[in-house]
Structures are given as structure tokens and as C-alpha cells.
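User: I'm designing a mutation panel for Translation initiation factor beta propellor-like domain-containing protein and want to avoid disrupting the core. Could you give me a predicted structure to guide residue selection? Please restate the sequence first so the numbering is unambiguous.

Assistant: Good idea. Sequence first, for numbering, then the predicted C-alpha cells:
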Amino acid sequence: MDLLCKTYSNSSDDDDGKQHKPPKTAPPPSKRPKPYFPSAHKPVSQAPDPQIGSPIPQNGRYVSKREKALMASASITQPDFPPTLPPSHEKGSISSADVPQEILLSLRKRANTCAEKNKLPCRLSIDLHGHVKPANAVQWSTSHAHLLASAGMDNSVYIWNVWSEQQKKARIISNHNAAVKDVRWSPQGQLILSCGYDCSSRLVDIEKGIETQSFTEKQAVTAIKFHPHNSNLFLSGGSKGLLKLWDIRAGKVVHEYVRRLGPILDVEFMNDGKQFISSSDVSQSNLSENSLIVWDVSREVPLSNQVYVEAYTCPSVRCHPFEPSFVAQSNGNYIAIFSTKHPFRLDKYKRYESHGVFGFPIKCCFNLDGEILASGSSDGQVYFYSVRSSKLIKKIKAYNQPCVDVAFHPVIPNVIACCSWAGDVSVID
């Protein structure tokens, strides 16, 4: 019996075949050695360890070999931080490798004859389904003309490989935390700039699928536009009426245009980028003359605020590609025409009317040679007008919901993209 007592009193979980006699007297508290803990586990608190579900040992408490092994294995197999989803992910390819040969031939050549240039789209040919909430904007890439970008109220930007025979969803960019209001391709075509109600504009490399820069403001950003001759500069306007010119290289604002304006609806550069037009919401004020303002880019001053004095807001502003004029989509259910030369007079004898706006953010655009003006409409149709005569040439039924934005293809004359308030994106040719 004495031998058994001696044997069990000297054994433990750490027993490695040798017997260790305990010291006769414990050392004084001030000279007591510090307890040993494995490097993979730090004894910082007495709260339960979420990795192994047991309390972290207190200082001075005996730690058996079995507990050491459990703590070490748990710290190795469990990460210290939760995994995060990437802001963008790939669905298909952005390459034109699987685009039909006849489309590639059309993309590689530009229309030369007047008949080709003035050829109008005929029918809805491609439906692109992805957005689950209203789509706000569409734009073709000028350098990779088989790619189309769309922005939606579902916090996402889609990159479509339109004529791909396999997967048309090339990229789904989900780096915004709120609805995306506008999207623009960089002139080089490798970057996408988008803005939205999360008070930011974000630049994404679509080839790598990663965000390269973010530009934060103290307002929801509702409109963006790259400078026509310097791709390192872009203009932004937001819900508080603030207008800013950003330099991508420095990541900061280089010019700010301050005036008591309503929410910015659209911006557009003109006169070789030396000036720009801003359109703002004047529905909550009596200052209807501030609906359209022409600004000097470098001097940060308005050149005229008496451009449009009617009590309507203008959700879209577009410059003619060659002539000294610009148009503004009006909530009065027509498109007004203005001169780009001071004093930027309104053409009182001609305007484009037949379509409906009725408070929706309906946009318009010119075709390649500026002979045709296309507009969305609240009745879901796309309207085509002759620029010179302002007469309606044709209209095509696209949706049951309002057609919000339209964009002519940068190479093929008879192709136009459009999107709807229901979230549909389509191509008409």
C-alpha cells in the first residue's frame, strides 16, 4: 500500500517515464518563476476561448500536456480573422475570343458611307439579365467595343461580354455599399469608374477584378464624367450640390465648384474640356435659372446661370460630337437645344418632343456622326430623332417599364444599348 501511494502521488499527465519529486518548500512569491504557455496561445484574459470553447488558463495554473496539445491544434486550424468576400468576382471572360467572326469584323472596321452611318437599329436582339433593381446607366467601352457596363440600384456594376457565345456576364462588381448611380469607362478601357449613394466613386481594374482607388465625399455621388483630353481627371457631382474635379494620380480634389445648388443630376464637358455644364434639381427652390450652369474648369467660376429659365429639371445633358451645341433632357417631356458659345442661348424654334419623361431620370445620346439623337422614354420605348430637322424618325418598343438610358455603340452604327427601370439591359440592332 505504501508503494502504491508513492507511485500515484508522483505521476501526472506529463509523466515521461521519470519520477520527479516535488520541492520540499515553495519559493517566495516574489521569486516564483513565470508559468510557461505555448506560443500559439496568449493568456490575456479569463474569457472562454472561442476556438476551443474552454477558459484560457490563469497565470500560475498548471497546464497539462493534453491541454497544451488541444490549444496548439486549435490555434493552428482556426484563423484569427473571418474570411471576407472579394468586392468583385468573375463570371465569364472579358476576351473577345468567343465572339462570332462577323461581329469581330464589324468591330475592327468603322462605317465609312453615309448609308452605314445613318442606319438605324431595327429590333431588340439581346437581353442581358442580372440586375434585380432599376438599372441607372449603360456605357460601351470605346477601346474594347464588345464590352458593355451597366450600373444598378442593387449596389452592383455588371460588365457584359455582349456577343459572347458562352457566358455574357463577364464581371459582377459589388464594391459599393449602396445603389450605384453612374458608371464610366476610362479612355484606355481597362478601368471602370462608378459612383453611388455610399458617398464614393470607385475605380476598378476589370482585368484583375480588384478596386484600385476610392474617392470619398460627404454626399451621395450621382454623376461622374472623365475629362475628354486627360484621363487622369474626372468630374463628380452629388446630392448636396457639390461639384469636384478629381486627380486620380494624387487621389484628391484639384478644383471645387461651390454654389448653392440642388442635387446634381448630370455633368458634361464641352469646348475641349475647358468648360462644363452642370444640371441640378431645382424642384425645391424658386431658383429655376440654376437648373443648368456653365462653368469655367480652371477658374472655378460660373460663366452663366441664365441658360435655362423654365421651372423644369434636366436629368441628362449631352454635347453634340461636332457642332457647337448641346441638348438637355427636360422634365417638360422634351429635349431642349442650346449653343455652346457664350451666352449659351436656348434655341426657341426647335426641340425634340414626342417621348415622355414624367419625373424619371431619362437620358439621351447622339450617334457616331451626330445626325441622330436617341432618347429613352417613360413608356418603355426608344425614340430616334433627326438632329437637323428635330423630327421623330422611328421608335422601338423595348420594355414595359420606363427606358432609362440609351448608348450608341462606338463602332457599329446600327447598334444601341438601353436599360430599364425594371433592371433589364438590352442591345438593339
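For picking mutation sites, this is relevant: The radius of gyration is 32 Å. Confidence is low (pLDDT under 50) at residues 1-24, 29-59, 73-86.
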